[in-house]
Amino acid sequence: MNKGFSVVGKSVIREDGIDKVTGKAKFADDYKFDGMLHAVMLRINEAHARINSVDFLEIENNRNVFSIISSADIPGAKKVGMIKNDQPIFCDEKVVTPGDVIAMLVGESEDGLRPLLSKIKIDYSPLPVLNDPKKSLDKDAVLIHPEAGSNLIIHHPLRKGDIQKGFDESDEILEQTYTTQLIEHAYIEPEAVIAIPQGISQGVKIIGSIQNPFSCRRIVAAVLNLPLAKVRVQQAHLGGSFGGKDDTMAILAARAAVAALKTGRPVKIRYSREESILESYKRHPYILDYKAGYMKNGKIKAIKIELLADGGAYTSMSPFVTWRSVVQATGPYEIENVHTDVRAVYTNNPYTGAMRGFGSPQPIFAQESLMDEIALRLGMTPDEIRRINGYKVGSVTATGQTLKDHDVNLITVLSTACENTDFAKKWKNNLKKKSVALELSKDSPILKDDQFIRPDDNIKKGIGLALSFRGCSLGAEGMDASAAYISIQNDGSVYLDCGLAENGQGLRTTYTIIASEVLGVSPDKIIYLELDTGITPDSGPTVASRGTIMGGGAVKNAAETVRDKLTALVKEEFKLPADDIISFTDNHVHSESEGTLASFQDVCKIASSQGMNLSAIGWYKGPNVHWDEETGQGDAYFTYVYGCQVAEVSVNISTGEVYIDKITAVHDPGTVINRLGAEGQVFGGVTQGAGYGIFEEVTTDKGFIRELNFDTYTIPTSKDISEIIPIFVEGKESYGPWGAKSLGEPTLELTAAAISNAVCNALGKRLFNLPLNLEEVLLNIKLRPADTKRGSLV
Amino acid sequence: MEVRFKLNGKEVATATASNIRLIDLLRDKFNLTGTKEGCGIGECGACTILMDGRAVNSCLVLAAQANGKEIITIEGIADGDILHPLQRRFLSNGAIQCGYCTPGMVLSASALLSQNPDPSEEDIKEAIAGNLCRCTGYKQIIDAVKETAKELQLKQ
Ligand code: FES
Ligand code: FES
Known about the structure:
The complex is a heterodimer of chains A (about 800) and B (about 160). Chain A is built from 19 helices and 30 strands. By secondary structure, chain A is an alpha+beta fold. Chain A has a seven-stranded mixed beta sheet. In chain A, helix 9 (about 360-380) runs parallel beside helix 18. Chain A is globular, with a radius of gyration of 28 Å. Chain A starts with 16 loop residues before the first helix and ends in a 15-residue tail after the last helix. Chain B has about 160 residues and is α+β, with helices and mostly antiparallel strands. Chain B has two domains: about 1-75, Ubiquitin-like (UB roll), CATH 3.10.20.30; about 85-155, DNA polymerase, domain 1. Chain B has five helices and five strands, in the order E-E-H-E-E-E-H-H-H-H. In chain B, strands 2-1-5-3-4 form a five-stranded mixed beta sheet, with helices on one face. In chain B, helix 2 crosses helix 5. Chains A and B meet through helix 1 and helix 16 of A and helix 2, helix 3, helix 4 and helix 5 of B. The complex binds FE2/S2 (inorganic) cluster (2 copies). One FE2/S2 (inorganic) cluster (FES) binds near residues 37, 39, 43, 44 and 57 of chain B. One FE2/S2 (inorganic) cluster sits at the interface of chains B and A.
């Protein structure tokens, strides 16, 4: 497939790598400005309370306080949101979750300000606290946002076929409930932002660890009541985001901007890890009810799915996150009769929003557990049941979309994964080795001789797989278009920029490779410009794995626009026949009839001497998709990617510990543009997915988070995972640059489900609740401290 | 109080307060912002620096403790414009994504290689176990360290 490429698909070194490896790359907190002030946040220790009054009297004249900023200082919108404006910049009426901020003190140093926070007198009345999403929709439930009329954030129904008929015709029915947990993005760089006033007429400039400069700009402009053009957002190097530096950062930027305009000085806000975890949004915990009807031959006839997502205190991206869930909840299986309801609700818990995976890891855990259970009941192997039901070309999805016009590589990725791991054989062998169940005699707690476990007996091996399809880009969630800018200098060097922001994953490198391929210039001749909303056209957010397919499409279009101009010029200059084929490679321009004509540099020189414009704006717009809100039917996404991961684990049955021996990750991301980057996405995504599967969890007590730093919130370290094997099946695709699609999110969404199926293969018992930590594996329960302190109680 | 120490090869002296952490001194006084803060409690390793050749978390060290010591930060590990072999291998192996953990990783790895020129994979994992990376899954970092060790051995 990749034949004929000179740069695409090769391993190219990151264009920002040197700066990062020498410590020169500037992250948000590394920026300093003359006269810069700092800000600290005022909160109360309540998850739900009405604020009656705030009295700053005691600190107003303190020499460390330069200014006090609250809701009253906001000239424009006091509440904002990515979808619904329900989140206050500063809470003036009530707080609805412990991360909420009431006001902000601004001064020369954070250290001077912090001790003053406790001297501010806040009069408030606590309100009933709602933490259980299952009780959110009860008639007597307290309303988190009374103006919304209910605690329902969104409901996505989907109806296909006749669910009752489907169950009636089924040979067997299986009903299960699964749960997934709240987790933290845990980007290693905590949030930081600086707002710099630009004088009365120019508005404000924002520099920060911002995932989506354009959505940040929209919110800051609304809060300041300024035109978009007067808010310039520049992205600093971003120390990880994974979907997490969007809403939170826009709100921090707005707070800093309000303070900057009030004080006339640059204002920096930077969060400690504790504040970051306390206030930033997280991944939605789900409760997933599945009921499946199936035939003895393995064919699934009907499936009824009910998903409940805890949106926490604010809407954030919940409507879009849960929309992806409703589209993908059946998994990649063709089922005649589907009846799905997905709801997201408000609670007083930390709010939840976008996170890598975006509404897919939760249903995948449930649906892939369910498939394995059905296989076991029917005496089939996990791959057999999936081959019977899995999508092929022409299959119709739950939303009624026919899969065509691209390689529907679901069964290919499944077979590749199985062959590479000798899956079915290992899976059957593990099943035979029954786990040693300890049965203590009621009379005496002392083990009998034959009950002693030999060290080897403690370790059980397991293998499991998970399979998925994933819609690329935004789908029917929103307008899908992006832009890129290219400008070639008369010495042949190139400026490149794209409106889709780098999030640390290597998008800039991918774009550089694409431009390099089109123009035939080496990647080091291409200078990537910093994203600045003042220069780069709005391209929507870097979300939904749309970076490569959308941004890459725009970059290719821009580069081709100038290449076409140069092609015409070359034909004229060298008097070549009109049908001669001109190619651009190795920093030179060649023709089929004459061979190498000139260096790229010389051709650019000629172009500039003739006054030719060698800059262009490239544009890429996704094809139209459509969606019916009432029935959940339509062509949800314009194309899909497919993936299969196999997990091999060892489980210690006396401690409950799960060790990951090996993950084989087979993905079809379309054409691979940046090999080193693509492999990095797999290693990173699988590792995050493994953390989600076996130990990460943010637990709360009445809305208060227990794990506020990395001592208690543990993420995978270098010692937690062994081998990860990435395998790419590069399917054909008509969209995107040379058919390149998406990879970042598929790599993460499958891992937890594959691990869970492997643990079940090892233990002979199924686990229904993520994460599969020691207690879950050993006791099938989650132990929780009684309050926010450490220690365990059931 | 005054502290004197060797910083990236140069003798320096500066006034500091007794409650100032070394990370703040480096970032704020010397503008060496390559040293990052990720947790402030010694769990993430983003603030790793070399102190007399040992990798330490500069968020857990008081500025005063640097007195008389030799400190190397990420800005001081290359030989002028010539990258340290570890830096080169990090680049060629794709061991960098967002790059926030990178300075700490490079310094932890360099402390390992100066103490153990022939580390096993387990040794490498152990040496960077205190450096959290959320992006890379560690694989390409471990490979980079392995290859550097081999390269340095060949040179000797
Ligand atoms: S900031 Fe020092 S270890 Fe995390
Ligand atoms: S590269 Fe992002 S934390 Fe390591």
